[in-house]
Amino acid sequence: xxxxxxQRIAIINALKSRKNIIDLDILNGVENENDxxxxxxxxxxxxxxxxxxxxxIDYNTYEIKKSKNIQKIASYISNLSxxxxxxxxxxxxxxxxxxxxxxxKISHDQGIDFIGIKKFxxxxxxxxxxxxxxxxxxxxxxxxxxxxxxxxxxxxxxxxEFSQTKEVYKSVSMKSFxxxxxxxxxxxxxxxxxxxxxxNSDIISLDFIDLVLLTEKxxxxxSLNIEKNNLFIKSRADREINNxxxxx
Length: 248
Description:
By secondary structure, this protein is an alpha/beta fold. Helix content is 42%, strand content 20%. Helix 6 links the parallel strand 7 (180-186) and strand 8 (203-206).
């Protein structure tokens, strides 16, 4: 196991821990000042991305204080089955202003796990835009080939070129100028080349920490019905992901 892998696993375990304080200096894979600086920079990037969403760095002690929700959310995501993780990712799509989200049938998903739909309201209710997503419940890095494969699946969906003779995604109507976004979620992390490809191709990429902090943001803004008094409620999250419809 590489030092980077040790640090990634240590981060996940630290977020899942019941302790409200993460001591960066004693995480696995942090052996010197350079390691400490690198992992601090990593956390800083997430905190900048999701301000006031549950993590605060104390630079005097190099400790991170966690909100009450972080441990609950991190443990919840880690314990989801692969199928429920796909539905969880479909639920998160709603935070990107997509009104409807569906999971897809495992038997004919064609490399696509969920779809978000947004209707234009100003002048033409028939006009739609789509968010096409894939979710991987992984304990290893998402590599560049998986991003390429997903990008290919989105293009094949637009062209309605499937590996099965029966019609799938019949309710998805894409025209030449229909707006489509790509969305890839993982319960672990992305390799650096995979991250770069997502950036260059405008695919939204969410890793474990993204999902945890984005969920905390949803709780604080009451964007999803998964909280009570700003506290994450597992039963409410279960209900919401169970309500995600399966697209025929």
